[in-house]
């Protein structure tokens, strides 16, 4: 892909309202563009990363028996009256009227819509379980949108809803989804901690949150450095540096960005919305539900937060928008252009290649490349005519001059 | 994929408000579920078809130098005031206020947002051309939503915007996009006609519409059966069956469903919104724009319209949600289940397989399979124990009993 056509509007300075590192960097790197407070365009680079996150999510959910669909953003008031949420939800719910003065809202979540979609179908235990998800744009009118994609008013979520004939089946799926989430965030190159709130009540209230530890999160989390779990209640008496009585690990206190949550809904929506099925015993019962969210735009931002310094970003392998960044210091002379294009074409057979074909000074190109964050960079300079390029591995900052004939081998060894 | 987990809520009867064949069939086949007038959930089967259409679109646009991003649905009034469209647009524009009483609309198109996104960047002819697209949910408050996905209030579109330094460059890209569209609809298995309105004016007004001929479209089109083009003006004096003076072809009059349109915008938005660049001659000029839409949910519906009878559907190869439908007449006995699952697992290495694992009568399964529309069906009946299955090619209704050992060869020969 030619960089001139990709549309990467890098900036010298971050917008004034950008308070945190990732927000500043995302604006400067040409990843996002604000159109109003808390509302962003995902520019082509960010869009490619989002698609990579989505692919990982789909793979992990599909192989566990989940099925993808797409529900509408426009939700009619009557369904929200059924669940009782129309009156309970505060000003965060974006409400509007259609041309006939009927009330609608823009969905912040889809419990009502999904319950409506399945309730005629799940008339018998034979139709259960079901696990339905979507990747979709959501709306929440935050009082004070801030931190870029972290507290936005329009954002991308994966939301999943499961339906079960009994508590045991919900427990089984809940555990399976917890494993899916762990795998999704691991594959996305994010270090997460699970904050559990296991109240043990039947039919609801059990929940786990997946938190990315960072300097800027909205919640403060105490976690044990030896366990994979963080539990606010359990460690609430302890502070940073204390030793944990249970396992001898050290307590660390940090901010967390919530990127996912899973929740045993129980029968809250099925009872109020009359989603009943006939059980094996022939009784009419409300279906038992679970819900499971991942903030996709937040995951993008959390990844930037974890993989950047003030002036540079390096994407983890599974999220990177491109594998290789080919940066010719000079891309003017016809013969040279032909040779560079030939090299890129051959690399594109195996890799996703970004070619900086712009007529810019080398300094500008390198600075942009640091912001864009492709992990492997090939600089094409004077020695290209002698069959040599400069190869930079940005994960370890290792730089070497390579013979073109060794390039394929080097790339192979990197396991891109 | 197991059909019990896919969520295909087939219906015996179409909803009463469904007037046209495709709408009736889409509801009965468990493809869509209405939540309010003109607002639908795309159920898992439809979602898979939509993803196939999207893949074709992305491939054809990306290889022609277009770049994908994602713009917001929530659009602030100030940008619409700049273009003048806030006052011009009628009640079809869905408007709302945020918690601070600021005006927003839900985007029916994105000219304002994309012009805002690029105008600081395209300061020089060196940054041009650009071709940016998105696949996104759009909103239009239709006076009378009807015909299912054909005239909905929330729908999926691909919209593309191109930016050029001069008319020649716009013309070149316009031609390239016209070819892309022709290829997209051909690959989607749709027969389309292009309705041109070439006014020849510089800087705008040239447009082409891509129409699927059908019994139910919103526009009446006269077209020549020998040419690939349809031109309302040119053939306006002629009626069905007339011979066309130009080429000797016969005129046919039919309804058309508009699935795509391409349009030379010129400088309408760049002038009003101040999107200027410095030309090669050093002058500040408004950038010249083109816009190009494809109704993705409409394309789905048009495909159903073209590939169905009242009670059955057969998806074209590139859009089908699955390649093979495995229908065991009995899926109860453990040994049999194990054998069927083994067969499905081996088929899944090469094909997308739907397994009807439901505990339903054979008649119900076959009726549902006719509605679901997978092109090749394998019925597993009594003779399975003798290594035989019944294979149905739904494109030509050819049915044969196959030895399991010949299955691989048969599938190969079908070029799935």
Description:
The structure is a homodimer of 416-residue chains. Chain A has 416 residues and is α+β, with helices and mostly antiparallel strands. Chain A has helices at 3-6, 21-28, 44-62, 77-83, 85-88, 111-119, 167-187, 268-272, 296-306, 334-347, 362-372, 404-413, and strands at 32-36, 39-42, 67-68, 74-76, 94-97, 103-106, 130-139, 154-164, 192-197, 207-214, 219-224, 229-230, 251-266, 276-278, 284-286, 288-295, 324-328, 353-355, 376-380, 388-393, 398-403. In chain A, strands 3, 7, 8, 9, 10, 11, 12, 13 and 16 form a nine-stranded mixed beta sheet that branches. A five-stranded mixed beta sheet of chain A has the order 18-17-19-20-21, sandwiched between helices. Chain A has a three-stranded antiparallel beta sheet with strand order 4-6-5. The model of chain A is unreliable at 199-203 (pLDDT under 50). The interface between A and B is large, with 64 and 64 residues.
Most extensive contact: A-B, 64 and 64 residues
CATH second-level architecture of the largest domain in chain A: 2-Layer Sandwich
CA-CA gap between termini of chain A: 18 Å
Largest sheet of chain A: 9 strands, mixed
The overall pLDDT average of chain A reads 93
Number of strands of chain A: 21
Low-confidence stretches of chain A: 199-203
- Using the alpha-carbon principal axes, give the shape of chain A: elongated
* CATH level 3 topology of the largest domain in chain A: BirA Bifunctional Protein, domain 2
Bin the strand percentage of chain A: 25-35%
CATH superfamily of the largest domain in chain A: Bira Bifunctional Protein, Domain 2
Q: Count of helical segments of chain A?
A: 12
Count the domains of chain A.
Answer: 2
SS-derived structural category of chain A: alpha+beta
Q: What's the assembly state of these chains?
A: homodimer
Helix content of chain A: 25-40%
User: Which radius of gyration of chain A do the C-alpha atoms yield?
Assistant: 25 Å
The top-level CATH class of the largest domain in chain A is Alpha Beta
